Amino acid sequence: MALHAARRDPRAHWLLLLLGLAVLLAALSLNAMVTGVAGGSGPSAAASSPAPRQVTGGGPVLRLDQTKPLVRSVPDRTVALTFDDGPDPRWTPQVLDVLRRHRAHATFFLVGARVNEHPELARRILAEGHEIGSHSFTHADLSAASAWRTELELSLTRKAIAAATGREVTLLRPPFTSTTRSLTGRQYDVLRAAAGSGHVAVLADRDTKDWQRPGVPAILRSATPQGGRGAVVLMHDGGGDRSQTVAALDQLLPRLTKTGYRFTTVSEAIAAPGSTVSAGLTTTLSGAALRGAQLGAGWLAAAMNALLGVALALGLARLAVQVVCAQLHVRRVRRTRRPGPAVSVPVSVIVPAYNEAANIAATVRSLVASAYPALEVIVVDDGSSDGTADIVARLRLRGVRVIRQANAGKPAALNTGIRAARAELLVLVDGDTVFQPDTIHHLVQGFADPRVGAISGNTKVANRRRLLGRWQHLEYVIGFNLDRRMYDVLRCMPTIPGAIGAFRRRVLLDVGGVPSDTLAEDTDLTMKVLRAGWRVTYEERAIAWTEAPSSLRQLWRQRYRWCYGTLQAMWKHRHSLREAGGGGKLGRRGLPYLTLFQIVLPLAAPAVDVFALYGLIFLPWSKLVLAWLGLLLLQGGTAAYALRLDRERLGPLWTLPFQQVVYRQVMYLVVVQSVVTAVIGNRLRWQRMVRTGEAAALVRG
User: Fold this and answer.
1) CB 86, CB 244: distance < 8 Å
2) N or C: which end of the chain has fewer CB within 10 A?
3) Pick from 291, 323, 351: which residue ends a domain?
4) Which helix (H) or strand (E) holds 395?
5) How far is CA 232 from CA 10, 108, 141, 486, 587, in A?
6) Contact at 8 Å (CB) between 544 and 434?
7) CA 306 to chain centroid
8) Of 291, 326, 350, which closes a domain?
9) Does 10 fall in a domain?
């Protein structure tokens, strides 16, 4: 109600948020490409004509940057061992150890992404006299990739190797190519295009197919040249279990050496100059940046997977606690409602009102119509400009008093009413709230327990005909009232809603009345009552119908104020963490729960949505649909249970799937805005909702 001086709401963070989410999506996409999640890591099944005969019938080393292909073969009694798919932290060192033990050299065709993960292995390969070449960046089937993807794969691989070793490679063996005889037309086109950027293609004479793990004898047979001929032999040092490869290599080297074979690199075998050249500074720096981006993307992907796992576990734990506490609450309520003397002492109802002309008459009439024996109603008009006080005065209802004051804010209006009240039990009611005839009776019965200082009622949405109203109705029933049952059982109720709450007069006086230094005065007040040692309970039968925001703009303004005010109250009462009694229960149960589920997880929700978008792009839709349906069924079950507890119809459940698309995003963006406002020290002014009179229509209906 009261207006506070305020700076303009911060806005720059929205641009930063969008930029951060875009970076996150790009990082996840990079990780998907690197790990093969994005596809393209398997061979293409599309039919293709064979490569030209002069290539398929020649040697395995192809230089294709001229009009006529230049084909080279390995001389007799020479084996150029080649290893694909590394470097692998387990198998590449074992392969290198075997080669060193037998004083043999080989050529390693490295996957760029794996070089970024294990640059020390690339350096060791060169340091021990071996040769390296490119095997693409993500082990993609280049014959099925677009031209830009192929060029990117080769460029990134050269940069990755340059950053790790300071050298640029020229040798290339694309994934899923082996012997010249099996070379297809599409694969040949890829090699021709790569030749334009200085790559020399190296295929194989003998493919051991060790990736199939056919057994050590089979690998030995496939790797052994016939008739003393030379050969480029294809093996693997990565991509899976390579124990058979290592064992076969350890037998192959001494066996062929005894028959006069020598083992060397591809370039040395064909008497060509060294295949690597010194990398330029630009290439090295860009490779280092690429490695940082890849490692960061992997870390982010792992963090997002962990976040989703934690969020899911917390959600399930929260649901389990809510259900258990709800059952305990139901049993306790049944036990405490045994026949006994009813509370019937006088009650004063205080209604703070600022420009509530749309609903005030219905609110007051519903209070006067209460089936309670001793009741007074005090309407405190807080400087309204729409005739709110005059409307109440014209009703001429017995037991209703109107107090007029200059606009000072809702807390001041409530404190005015508290001072004027005659009864020892006070009910605080918003000016847009409609009570049922038995609401006040049910609300005050808990005061039969002298330990109870305040009681929360059950707030329900009156205007639920439209979609936005139904969403809020579900939120009130599931989020608010189910939580209140849990808070009641755990004795850490953080908020009695302004729409309906009952207090002992002496409790309010002991805590200094309704505080005015936060925008969530109801939360602030409830926390003060708990810290003063009083119990705060929940009475689900005390129903109050309230008018919820009817537009997204109004909803934003209301929730922005609520969230910001709750942050203020939590910070104000943070010292309850160290207290005993009711304050300690608030500090060690209520505040952590609020922090986790109303601040931390909502702040993480934008990243979760980006992860969902990433899943839509890169992951199989069948898995996503099953996961989404599973979560929806879980939410639906929770909602149905909460509606049943509140004796509500299940009809609004059909809106639950749509609630995840718009409403959820509004709620977490409100939290983002509130946290930013709090962090930068801005002061939020009071955000008053424009009333439409739909709560009044409920009574007239």
Assistant:
1) no
2) C
3) 291
4) helix 388-395
5) 65, 12, 21, 71, 71
6) yes
7) 10
8) 291
9) no
- CB contact at 8 A, 503 and 423: no
Q: What is the DSSP string of 111-153?
A: -HHHHHH-HHHHHHHHHTT-EEEE--SS---GGGS-HHHHHHH
Q: What pLDDT shows up at residue 1?
A: 45
Q: Determine phi and psi for 265, rounding to 5 degrees.
A: -80, 165
Positions of the chain with pLDDT under 50: 1-6, 40, 45, 699-701
One-letter amino acid for residue 369 of the chain: A
Query: What's the CATH number where 476 sits?
Result: 3.90.550
CA 351 to CA 400: how far, in whole Å?
10
Distance CA 68, CA 403 (A): 101
What confidence score (pLDDT) does residue 629 get? 86
Tokens of 140: 């993609």
How far apart CA 512 and CA 195 sit, in angstroms, is 83
DSSP state for residue 203 in the 8-state scheme = -
CA 297 to chain centroid, in Å, comes to 16
User: Does 483 qualify as catalytic in the annotation?
Assistant: no
Q: Is there a catalytic annotation at residue 236?
A: yes
What pLDDT, in 10s, does the model give residues 461-481? 998 889 999 999 999 998 888
What b/e sequence results for 621-649 when a residue is b if at least 16 CB atoms lie within 10 Å of its CB, and e otherwise? eeeeeeeeeeeeeebbebbebbbebbebe
Q: Is 349 inside a domain boundary?
A: no
Q: Output the six-digit token pair for 262.
A: 């020598």
Residue positions counted in the chain: 701
Query: pLDDT for 207-219, tens place per residue?
Result: 999 999 999 999 9
Prediction pTM value: 0.81
Residue 63's φ and ψ, nearest 5 degrees, are -110, 115
The candidate with the shortest Cα–Cα distance to 592, out of 487, 677, 518, is: 487
Helices 147-165 and 185-195 pack at an angle, to 10 degrees, of 50
Out of 135, 139, 199, 236, the active site residue is 236
CATH code, domain with 165: 3.20.20.370
The answer as to whether 375 is a domain residue is no
The answer to whether 245 and 237 have CB atoms below 8 angstroms apart is yes
| 476 residue type, one letter | Y
Q: How many independent structural domains does the chain possess?
A: 2
* Maximum CA extent, the chain: 118
Which residue in this structure is represented by tokens 């002309």? 357
* Rounded Cα–Cα distance for residues 270 and 232 (Å): 11
Q: Cα–Cα distances in Å, from 469 out to 270, 273, 476, 546?
A: 78, 76, 10, 11
Beta-carbon contacts of 460 under 8 Å, excluding residues fewer than 6 positions away, are 473, 476, 477, 543, 544, 545, 546, 646
H or E element: which one contains 155?
helix 147-165
Q: Is 456 helix (H, G, I), strand (E, B) or coil?
A: strand
Residues 622 and 478 in one domain: yes
For tokens 């792009």, name the residue.
617
Helices 147-165 & 281-336 angle (0-180, nearest 10): 100
**SS3 at position 542:** strand
Distance, CA of 376 to CA of 378 (rounded, Å): 7
Residue 358 within a domain: no
Measured between alpha carbons, how far apart are the two ends of the chain, in Å?
A: 29
